[in-house]
Design a protein that fits this description.
Blueprint: H1 11-14, H2 18-32, E1 36-41, H3 46-49, E2 54-56, H4 58-65, E3 72-76, H5 79-88, E4 94-96, H6 105-108, H7 112-125, E5 131-136, H8 141-149, E6 153-155, H9 160-170, E7 173-177, H10 180-189, E8 197-200, H11 211-216, E9 219-222, H12 234-243, E10 248-251, H13 257-262, E11 265-266, H14 269-278, E12 284-288, H15 291-300, E13 305-308, H16 318-321, H17 325-333, H18 345-362
Parallel strand pairs: 1-2, 1-3, 3-4, 5-6, 5-7, 7-9, 8-9, 10-11, 10-12, 12-13
Helix pairs in contact: 2-17, 4-5, 5-18, 8-18
């Protein structure tokens, strides 16, 4: 039977030693040369990242993906990332997600039916108001397509501010999906007053919506969140500063505004990587983001002390962690028979418009 993209890596590959898996991956990379590219997100396991031809956050990988010539792209990340690669790829390119079970719970919080219902409700409460949808990259292809169809755009944590500029030049309000915290932190940096932010609770009975507050809103924030980044609390920073005087604290903008307000620095995954690299030897740096990136940074910078901001809490993205050397080896050994990722054509066309707008805005 032909293996499907949704079949888990077979037991025969799960039984192989890491050495054998590494040999297989190296052999396939050598065999295919430039025709095969392995992309690895920063939150992947160290063992997987070692095989990445390109490493980065979702924005960096998206930009690179849009320019790749390779026939085969193995995207070690989560579902929405590989989908984005499919959207930007040529029709003859094949994109694989080595572990197809790797999803993103935050992306799943903005199901397209709830988005359509919200859009209708907004049209009813705010007739004639020009609302620009912005979706974080961490969203399903159909939500990206919704943004493309409705004069909206995609953003990442690296460029959310620039997409706010773009949107507010074109409309009166922003509808931001699916991460409330990235949207709120971006709006705060933009100095939008608090009473002009409205949280869209997609589970709320519409009869209970505070329509007067909604009418004041400049930015409507979908009530989604990342369970990894919202574990960090202000008391973690206070404790860290007590235990390590002089510690530098850098956090991701998917964290809450209370945390962001008291951190030393806030920014995307790429920003965090750069921030750590720029600190002098001997620095003590506590990081509020995903555990695997922190682990890798600690190995990359043995001259610095790198700490997890919430040491007792395991801030790990289990979905990013799903992809193993076994999955990568199995995928590369079966590029001709495994079904590549696909996105329906009508979704792809409009999602691509929204993604290309982002790339045009942010360069
Ligand atoms: S870290 Fe959070 S936003 Fe990123 S993939 Fe995991 S659950 Fe989704």
């Amino acid at each position: 039977m032909m293996p499907s993209a949704y079949t888990r890596t077979p037991d025969s590959y799960r039984a192989m030693s890491d050495d054998e898996l590494r040999d297989r991956i190296r052999a396939k990379k050598q065999e295919h040369g430039k025709n095969l590219v392995v992309m690895t997100h920063h939150y992947q396991r160290r063992a997987v990242v070692e095989f990445g031809d390109y490493q980065g956050d979702s924005y960096a990988l998206c930009k690179i993906g849009a320019q790749l010539d390779a026939e085969y792209i193995a995207f070690c990340g989560v579902h929405f990332m590989a989908e984005s690669a499919v959207i930007l790829a040529r029709p003859d390119q094949k994109v694989f997600l080595p572990n197809p079970l790797a999803g993103c719970p935050m992306a799943d919080m903005a199901a397209i039916d709830s988005v359509f219902a919200a859009w209708d409700e907004l049209g009813h409460h705010l007739p004639g108001s020009k609302i620009i949808p912005i979706s974080y990259m961490n969203s399903a292809a159909d939500l990206k397509a919704f943004c493309g169809r409705n004069n909206g755009v995609i953003c990442t944590s690296s460029n959310a501010r620039k997409t706010f500029d773009w949107a507010l030049e074109r409309g009166e309000r922003i509808f931001f999906f699916p991460d409330e915290h990235l949207g709120r932190n971006t709006a705060n940096a933009y100095e939008i007053p608090k009473d002009e932010l409205f949280v869209w609770d997609f589970n709320l009975n519409p009869a209970k919506r505070d329509v007067e507050a909604l009418k004041r809103a400049k930015v409507i924030l979908w009530k989604g969140y990342c369970h990894v980044h919202t574990v960090f609390q202000p008391h973690h920073i206070q404790q860290m500063r007590q235990e390590h005087p002089g510690v530098k604290i850098v956090v991701h903008p998917e964290c809450t505004e209370e945390l962001v307000a008291i951190a030393d620095s806030v920014g995307s995954t790429s920003h965090i990587v750069k921030y750590v690299a720029e600190q002098p030897a001997g620095s003590v740096i506590a990081i509020g983001t995903e555990l695997n990136l922190i682990d890798r940074l600690a190995h990359m910078h043995p001259d610095k002390t790198i700490l997890e901001l919430a040491g007792n809490t395991c801030a790990m993205c289990v979905n990013m962690y799903r992809t193993t050397l076994n999955d990568l080896a199995y995928t590369l050994d079966n590029l001709e028979t495994i079904k590549p990722m696909s996105v329906p054509d009508d979704v792809k066309v409009h999602a691509r418009i929204a993604l290309e707008r982002m790339l045009a805005i942010t360069g």
